[in-house]
Amino acid sequence: MLTLDRIYQAAHTLKNVVRNTNLIPSPNIAPDCTLYLKTENLQITGSFKVRGAYFKMSRLTDQEKAMGVIACSAGNHAQGVALAAERLGIKATIFIPSVAPLSKIEATKRMGAQIEIIDGVYDDAYDAAVDFQQKSGGVFIHPFDDIDVISGQGTIGLEILDQVTDFEAVIVPIGGGGLISGVAFAIKKLHPSCKVYGVQAAGAGSMYSSFKDKQRQSLTGVSTFADGIAVKSPGVHTYELCEQYVDEIITVSDDEIATAILTLMEQQKLVTEGAGAVAVAAVMFDKLPIKGQKVCAIVSGGNIDVNILSRVINRGLLTTGRLSELRIEMLDKPGQLNEVAAIIASLGANVIKVMHNPGGENTDITSCSLHISMETKNKSHFAEIKQAMQAAGYSIVEDLI
Which helix (H) or strand (E) holds 122? Predict the structure, then answer.
């Protein structure tokens, strides 16, 4: 059974193992509320997961430690288990889905764990890990549906209330539910009036659907770049704890997550992964009733694969209207490009790419089209440029904002 005593015990065990991560004010991200960020992306291993993994493994008997541990993970839990195993002298075999970023896989290998890559998503790795555990007799370290793991994650709730005592809402990312279960339990026991909200990626909303329909459900598939929360099924324990202690669960799109990652980089100089940014995305896109409140958003991890970071930044720029694309049809004669560029420049935008295409089969022989990529301030700025183009007599074929 989950108790405050067990969470306090976890905090004592972890005192010299994990960082008490900073809680930093972030006024520019959400001007309608007083927002603080709990920066678990700056935790050792780059994620909160080490808390639960280490506390669980610290409680194993000598006989259990001798048998070794088995885990499955998209990367962050894997690193937590690997670090705990290294510190505690335990052999670890970790099953990782093929969709996990290479950076997370390599970081886990460097800590000495044995890695098994499984084709598919988290749940496929889970099935393989359970099968191996039954054959080997090792101890399975569940990434979220375990009371000791949940207790370790709950230490974040204790730290939040130690750092700021009067939060009105705490917003927590959800994959399988281990983090929010521990945090919600701690918050509600110590500060019952504080709301606890959960956030999932829209393409992996298993806990969202379960919470909404008041019945634990499994998805047939997941689709999100936020690999750390791409879970088909919530845990048994975590679903029950969410049902009891969580006030509301919502979802955010991948575009909204990408925008949050970009905003955290620009405004707070924080690198976050998709799973780590969902709570901030919920605040930025007004998904929760927190206007005028003092709010904490947990930034749960920062292990984003650098190979997709540029794509995420580009998507964030497109979503916010700071990268805009326009295709204009016009007569192909000297001076046209100069006039178009002058209109854009006069309105304060920056042209970064121009493609000239001669008239096609169904257009005038003397016509052409320009495909223009621009750096703009926001969507309103782009709309102003379009209006100016039309006022100058240019025909807009397509806008690709």
Answer: helix 122-136
